[in-house]
Amino acid sequence: MPKISQKKPARKGAKKKTGRRVGLFCLFLFVASTLAAGFYFMVLYPTTPRKITLPILSEQAKKKPLHQKAELPAPLYEEPSLPQQAPPVAIRSRKTEKTPLAGRPLVAIVIDDMGNRQNTGRALLALDLPLSFSFLPSTPFSEELQKEAQARGRDILLHLPLEPMDPKWNPGPGTLTTAMDPETMKAIFREDLQAVPKAIGVNNHMGSRFTANPQAMRTLLAMVQARNLFFLDSVTAANSVAYDLAREMGIKAERRTVFLDNDQNPDKILAQLDLLVKLAGEHGQAIGIGHPNPATLEALRRYQTQLRTRTDMVGVSRLVH
Q1: Domain with 298 in it
Q2: How far apart are CA 177 and CA 181, in angstroms?
């Protein structure tokens, strides 16, 4: 009689374990696929972007950034304030009078950058005009020309080198920067002032970055105040805080009105002198800044009679308040 093979029935426990594993695996696949789909739709899927409207810039605007503040009627000089850098501009007077005051208007002209050009410096000093002269520290003819300016009774200023916005411009020896600690700044300022010992005031050489920094300017103006000097803001930056801070601290101060010789053409400088006199007539006083260049010397020689007859020419110290 043939043997009948009998299969052992599967254990119920094994079936349950296998089913549980399959269920867990399916659950894992479901969760993983859900997460993957969520990641795709939330991160990778190219949803419709928000519409952003960008300003349309002219070609000129693309090349030149806008000023942060539009306080002035025209762009200011870039560093340094030389003829080829930018067109000359006038600063609006802080006064509000629109008609000439009683008598002739007061005009002061400051010649910056003194000390590098001996012959032109001497010729400017010899003009029959009460010009004011601002001397750079550490220049070859500074001591000689300062003595002559003092002998002629001219106002003498320290033309203090300050940090420009663009690091490619070098203001020269004795420059103060915004990164300096107060003690370093004081030491350098003391040396600069020793180079111009007869200075009765200070104005900035370059300094578009420095004069826009309130903390740095407070440190500098405290030193100016301690020596009983005045401060003339050359206004090489539209956002300069120098004048307002000086007034707030009780320091005698003023701002220049017109740069005279950005364009080294005597006729253009004559036009700037006309503008200076016009603004002085409207506001009672005005301050022009020029440089010891042959074209400036020629223009002042040609215009000196008009300056004497149409204005009361004074040293710049008369116009600071």
Answers
A1: 103-318
A2: 9
The count of domains in the chain is 1
The tens-digit pLDDT sequence of the chain (321 residues) is 444 444 445 455 555 555 566 566 656 666 566 655 554 444 444 443 333 333 333 333 333 332 222 223 333 334 544 333 333 455 544 543 443 445 899 999 999 999 999 999 999 999 999 999 999 999 999 999 999 999 999 999 999 999 999 999 999 999 999 999 999 999 999 999 999 999 999 999 999 999 999 999 999 999 999 999 999 999 999 999 999 999 999 999 999 999 999 999 999 999 999 999 999 999 999 999 999 999 999 999 999 999 999 999 999 999 999
- Could you tell me if residue 35 is inside a domain? no
CATH label of the domain that carries residue 288: 3.20.20.370
Q: Enter the pTM of the model.
A: 0.73
Cα-based distances in Å from 196 to 127, 148, 161: 22, 13, 13
Whether the CB-CB separation of 153 and 131 falls below 8 Å is answered with: no
Name the one residue in this structure whose structure tokens are 């008369």: 318
**End-to-end Cα spacing for the chain:** 136
Please say whether the dihedral angle defined by the alpha carbons of residues 108, 113, 118 and 119, taken in this order, is positive or negative: negative
Place of tokens 């000089």: 77
Contact status, residue 107 vs residue 277, Cβ threshold 8 Å: yes
Rounded to the nearest 5 degrees, what angle is found at the Cα of 283, between the Cα atoms of 222 and 261? 75
CA 298, CA 268: separation in Å to the nearest integer?
12
